[in-house]
């Protein structure tokens, strides 16, 4: 089995949880937490910050780790 390490951001502001619309693939039209694969030599926190800057053109601070899904 091949393992791919990914991260996802649960963005909470003023009591609201934000998600992004999925624009492609099997789940097109659905909602997801923004995220990405972790690149070689990158920390999970750095991967989240990079992905949010690329996808949403904004900056975030990483507050806490929520969990692992396998």
**Gyration radius over CA:** 13 Å
Task: Please state the structural category.
Answer: alpha+beta
Number of domains: 1
Mean pLDDT reading: 91
In the CATH hierarchy, the architecture is Alpha-Beta Complex
Element string (H = helix, E = strand)? EEEEEEH
The profile of the biggest β sheet is: 2 strands, antiparallel
Q: Kindly report how far apart the N and C termini lie.
A: 12 Å
Biggest sheet strand order reads 1-6
- CATH level-1 class: Alpha Beta
CATH superfamily: Nucleoside Triphosphate Pyrophosphohydrolase
Query: Got a strand count?
Result: 6
Shape: globular
Question: Helical stretch count?
Answer: 1
CATH topology-level name: Nucleoside Triphosphate Pyrophosphohydrolase
Stretches where pLDDT falls below 50 for ≥5 residues? none
Tell me the β content: 15-25%
- Helical percentage: 10-25%
Task: Tell me what the structure shows.
The chain is α+β, with helices and mostly antiparallel strands and about 70 residues long. It has a single domain (about 5-55), classed as Nucleoside Triphosphate Pyrophosphohydrolase (Alpha-Beta Complex). It has one helix spanning about 45-55, and strands at about 5-10, 10-15, 15-20, 20, 30, 35. The chain has a two-stranded antiparallel sheet with strand order 1-6. Strands 2-3 form a two-stranded antiparallel sheet. A two-stranded antiparallel sheet has the order 4-5. Strand 2 (about 10-15) and strand 3 (about 15-20) form a beta hairpin. The longest helix is centred in the C-terminal third of the chain and has 13 residues, at about 45-55.
């Amino acid at each position: 089995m091949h393992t791919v390490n990914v991260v996802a951001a649960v963005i909470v502001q003023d009591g609201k949880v934000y998600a992004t619309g999925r624009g492609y693939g099997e789940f097109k039209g659905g909602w997801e937490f923004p995220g990405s694969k972790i690149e070689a030599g990158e920390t999970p926190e750095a991967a989240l910050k990079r992905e949010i800057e690329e996808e949403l053109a904004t900056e975030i601070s990483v507050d806490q780790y929520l969990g692992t899904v396998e």
